[in-house]
Amino acid sequence: MVKIMSALLVEQGFIFSQVDSRTLDFSNESELNVEFLKKILNESNCCHEWQGSLLIVEDTLWNESEWLALCAVPGRGRTEMCGYFDEEDNVSLAMLDLYISGLVRQLNRLGCMTIMSCDGEGERRPNIVFATENDTERAALLMVEVELKHRVKLARKTIVILKERKELLSFVSLLNELPENLSAISTEHLERTMFENVVEELLEIPGVSGYESIIRNHVMKKLATLTDKMTVDDYGNILAEVTFGRACREPSLTILLNSHLDVVDEIEAGREILKCGPVWTSSSGILGADDRAGVGVILHTLKQLQQMEFRAPVKVKIAFTVEEEVGLCGAKSVSSEFLEDIHAALVVDRRGRGDVVTGTRGIDFCDELFGEMLALIGNLGDDENRWEPTLGGSSDTRIWAQQGIQSVNLSVGYQYEHTSREELNLDDAFATANLLKKVFLHLDLLKSALSGIRRATPNTDERLRRNGRKSVSAAS
């Protein structure tokens, strides 16, 4: 593969600025790394010239394989204790493994301190060890942003990258596109910023009921690196699953996360999203937060789960349904096979803030204990006590409840849906994302509620109840 010289230099971790197509400025690179680059170029056939910190190259197109061979100097990365970075001591690229040097350097640039790295040498998974847990969490957020699949071992301050080492090079350029000022943003603020970016992107994509193909393709692309399996059923729903925790044991708990892809009216072309603090509105027509905000919360949650360590495996199923706004049509078509092992369903499609909707118009979505437990988990560590069980309107939650699944619908911060006055409070939407994160941090509490409900419901009666509800669903 042929690439321009600047792209190859970025992949190896060199820091420079582009003066013109032939001139690169290395004034911000360490003298140690400039000497390393000079050594590589002197052993090549590249016609080049140094003028102080400026590198002028005649041949801007290079064969990547030949370039990597030049960079693989003897002894490179042999200690593996490579990549320590702080404000006074820039990393020595000569000490970094060939395929991970650029990745480490970009993470350093964006505020993550590293102390060790290894590209796996083609025999095991690449990994990076960080200076602190905060650096580890921050790096995981950045990897999620560029869709680099990984596994976090927070107690060890380590990220294992679930890619072959040669694949790492393509992610370096994506990290290089992230702005330098991210390094000055706290990890908490970085997480919020990335959440808002996901939601804003979703709000710009059309997808009125029955015409969800564009938004479906967009969401599927996001899910590709976040799930183990994904399919689109005959009706057009996205159905996916992912298991977290030790793979040697079968999950004892399966949770469904659900929101819908369609909007009630088409998003008007050329409209602007108006932002007044945390409150967003549309300059014309609907905003589309019902239920793009819910989709954003679930995508963000799946990213968060990539960073968590689980003592026991848990399976997460995801249903992004279509045609919810015209009668829950997509949810009604989801197969019983997909739903049969689900213990609890968390739907993100409720207006306002703080509602844990447990039923509607004489229909219970869940047992009282389940709704109370969700509110309790959401309010842990929160003096505001935002979350409270309540009754609400119809949603896909009704369909999951008809299958005998303990189900709730959670507020996600939008108001005045289906009108041109629609608004979305990002503080409230982010609070819902934090509730879902708390659920997975406190799965023992959720399991205790489900166990209590099972003990109070004889097994035979529960099976009959499930079968009866499937019949109701099929007839509806």
UniProtKB/TrEMBL annotation:
Coiled-coil zones: none
Signal peptide positions on this chain? none
Print the keywords alphabetically.
Hydrolase
Domain (Peptidase M28): give its ranges. Answer: 252-425
Q: Which InterPro entries match?
A: ArgE/DapE_CS (IPR001261), Peptidase_M28 (IPR007484), Peptidase_M42_aminopept (IPR051464)
PANTHER family per the UniProt record, alphabetical: AMINOPEPTIDASE, AMINOPEPTIDASE YPDE-RELATED
State the name under which the record lists this protein: Peptidase m20
Organism name = Trichococcus pasteurii
